[in-house]
Specification:
The protein is mainly beta. The chain is built from one helix and 26 strands. The protein has one domain (26-376): Neuraminidase, CATH 2.120.10.10.
Length: 378
Amino acid sequence: MKSILPFTISAVIFLFPAVIFHGCKTTSMSSKGLYDGREIVLRLEPGPENPRNSEGDFITLRNGRILFIYSHFAGASGGDFGNAYLASRYSDDKGKTWSQKDEKVVGQEGDMNVMSISLLRLQNGEIALFYARKNSASDCIPMMRISTDEAKTWSDPVQCITDRKEYFVLNNDRVVQLKNGRLLMPVSLHISPGGVWGPSSAKGMMYCYISDDNGRNWKAVKEVPNPEDIILQEPGVIELKNGDILMFMRTGEGVQYVSYSKDSGETWSPASRGNIISPRSPASIERIPSTGDLLLVWNNNGTDQKRTPFNIAVSKDEGKTWENMKILEDDPDGWYCYTAIHFTKKNVLLGHCAGNRPKGTSLAVTQITRLDLDWIYK
């Protein structure tokens, strides 16, 4: 499978209306879905004073517990500029069931919120927690905290970007550590003239910030060239087997654009059309530990204004082609995106938004979907 249904969509990044809901519901379940290999094991739905739950990530602790930290919005607004803090749930049975009560991890540090989490087990054994601290429409900076006691406590935050004060988008589950130990943080820089988010703000400039000392210090590399001058947003990166780095980017061109680095993220090839047909919605790609293949999670749809269905596919040739495509969700009104991918020995967990667009819950619902790895290849 080299390409998948063409699709274009015109949505402004990260700006969706919020709705106040009455009757908060947290659901932990194990219901079979479209296929035998898919289980919905947790849904975090909005409720009173909690208009949105979204953009989380996973980490497996030394004792086997899986921790999921996500953005818990509080107050009246579930928009990207609403109040939010970081909360957690955990599983002690490899993701089959989850705790029913939130534990607050990081309070609301910024003038607006903290959100969009990446969790990473560093090569030195520490756990790194990354998140966006948002103060205004022109001030959003990635932060990092370190835990040396398996997420019981966290260090004071380190500001990862210090060379400029602007609005940087770091998606959830995006920070990676290369085999050589370097940390790569792919971000999209958005300029808001006069501090007001407008149509021109949607166009992002693609950067990677790098750290060679486990995140204590960071530096910027050159911007990814954009010769077509198109709207690029929400980059992700994956290290390929030959050492190259693949960057994939959300666009409004009906396809994910790509760029490559051959020097551990220092320089990047011009952004160009890739082979993943996609709406203006983020894709996620990670390597399956047991097989070495790449797993792609994205929306395969040729209809405007939709982030559905919710799909997976596998690449056995480092992203050149994709096969074993499956549909995980196909609600025509569903809104499936911002996926965190986490592997256990026999399964993969997907933490993702799973709201309903007509009901106004597009980004308000977070769902954890559990897949059988053997089923992915069937």
